[in-house]
Amino acid sequence: MSAHREPFLAACVQMRAGADKAANLALAEALVVEAARRGARLVALPENFSWRGPGEGDAEAWEPLDGPTVALLATLARRHRVTIVGGSILERPAAAGELPGNTSVVVGEDGALLASYRKIHLFDVSIPGRVESRESERRAAGEEVVCVDAEVARLGLSVCYDLRFPELYRALGRAGAQVLCIPSAFTFPTGAAHWEVLLRARAIENQCYVLAPNQWGPTPHGHLDYGHSAIVDPWGTMLACAPEGNGVVVAEVDLARLARVRTELPCLDHVRLGSPRA
Fold it and tell me: Which CATH number do you get for residue 236?
């Protein structure tokens, strides 16, 4: 993957998904179209963008990777000539009795499915009176680190709670990632404390751009999501941050700038623990 392509625009979609899948997909489509209209060539949707409902409706939202949600993303990608990071969907398990994956997909400009990544770190957290989650009781954890060449850049894939585990992002950096994708449904209590500092840290320590589309507002699970969808450059500068509400933020990704940062401050070549960057 060349580090000297022309700069391009990337977009993060911020939305509040609920239990009405058709409404969620209509909103996601409208916001992808808006991002393309503003010139974005890479568009990232948040975690669980297609369905965010109560537990009793969970199984009805499961889909295979060749199901209708990914098909819609493929149509949008072809029509608007954009690469889409499909936040995450509930990936139908291969066998009865198994749990679904919380799976992010990348669809190329020609509509082809380029990669899928199943969330490795599951959100099992208890902050009394604020956030209670046992994601591991409802989702199957992934095991594979996924980095993929898209038309515009080499993308490193992750989802939400993964953000707290720097070893994943160092592995993505070693695999050649230039843009770290972190689609999220990050909660308000933890987001207000840690969202920006963690995004900037992942960008700085791996010398990558970061795209972090997030859900916002009240959820069916009784807590608030933080919003503040963001794009960060490899120096740790916040290039864009969304206000509250549904919308799109856009910023320039310049791989030549990324190459300069890595040349001028070659800390990735100085790693002493583990393997240096490939």
Answer: 3.60.110.10
